[in-house]
Amino acid sequence: MIDTHAHLAFDEFSNLDEIIDGAKKSGVRKIISSSSNIADSQKAIELSRKYPGIIYPSVGIHPQQTDPQNKQSIRQQLDALERMVKSNKVYAIGETGLDFSEPPPPEIARTIDQQIGLFKGQIQIAKQYNLPLIIHSRKAFKEVVRILKDEPDVKGVFHCYSSGKKGIKDVLDLGYFFGVDGNLTYEEGLQAVYKNIPIENILLETDSPFLTPIPHRGKMNKPEYLKYILEVLAKTKNIPSREMDKQTDQNAHKLFSF
């Protein structure tokens, strides 16, 4: 199994040796450490050096400001991000996108114009360095799709896809993947959506430490819980778990070029 979205740079993972050991024992072979700001991005790169062959960094800036202490302009942050990409081996840009919801404390809301500028700037970095995008889209799906339609050379994944059956065609037309997370294990409506998504376009994610799947819901999520998402996805698609594991691994290798 490959966990294509976990926030291993977060403080919740202070015991990372134990977390990585648990992931390996559960059958997780690779983990993409996704980022939400410049500090996260730098730490994801450092973790990939400490845990080579299992942690792979994605660098990016979330549409809402997740680092309220950072007083740099958007241009300065984009420049810093590009310097990271130039100087290090990274596997994706993200998570990036648009979020028109109210941010949870201590995050700070950015204006729509700021978010769009930040998103488009990261798309250009992805395009220049031939990297996929990890898309965060919350209450902004149509606008995200509109922007991505103008950039057909860039591919990626809609992290924690939540735009229902109506949005499936838009994502497929873009040539993007659908990230499926722990909420699949307890949301029957989401299971109904994934019945309509081709297995060739699905990636497994935990979004650790968030979205913990059943049977551990209510506790901190970990990459080792990816197996529960795989099992429910396989049951939803009426496909053996081994076959689903093989297909989602192939999808991850195709997008992220491990």
Would you kindly provide a brief summary of this structure?
This protein is an alpha/beta fold and 258 residues long.
Description:
With 258 residues, the chain is α/β, with parallel strands linked by helices. The protein has one domain: Alpha-Beta Barrel (TIM Barrel). The protein is built from 9 helices and 8 strands. It has helices at residues 16-26, 38-50, 74-87, 112-128, 141-149, 168-174, 188-194, 226-237, 241-256, and strands at residues 2-6, 30-33, 55-59, 92-99, 133-138, 156-158, 177-180, 202-204. The protein has an 8-stranded parallel sheet. Strand 3, helix 3 (74-87) and strand 4 form a beta-alpha-beta unit. It is globular, with a radius of gyration of 17 Å. It starts with a strand and ends with a helix. The mean pLDDT is 98.
